[in-house]
Design a protein that fits this description.
The radius of gyration is 13 Å and the shape is globular. It is 55% helix and 3% strand. It has 117 residues and is mostly helical. The protein is built from five helices and two strands; from the N terminus they run αββαααα. It has one domain. The longest helix has 17 residues. The N terminus is likely disordered. The protein starts with a helix and ends with a helix. Helix 2 runs antiparallel to helix 3, helix 2 packs parallel to helix 4 and helix 3 packs parallel to helix 5.
Amino acid sequence: MGQEAFLVLFQVGYRIGEVEGAGGSLRHGGVRDGALGVPHLALTDSPSVMTRALLALDHAQCLRIDKDPQGAADMATDVWNELPTGFRTGLVQTRAEALRNALTGRPRAQLTEVLSF
């Protein structure tokens, strides 16, 4: 898959939804608009918290690439804040930190603050 196709695939967007029960299952936004006003399409039917978080962080990275650093920081902030604490490690943390490191100015400061908790 070429880079353009990859970016288009992830630009359709995901929003971390409500946490259901103690298991922490997150639902995607279906085809309705998410909190950020982006229509969400069902790219996967996986109930995995990590899968949904990683897709949303990939979308945030696409926003940064598309020169919307504040949108990227806002999306990553939403993802991080909605994740159960036990999922704020490993690959999810690595992707969030990689995005933070690619940002500058206010968006970077915002994400740095969020990731410190």
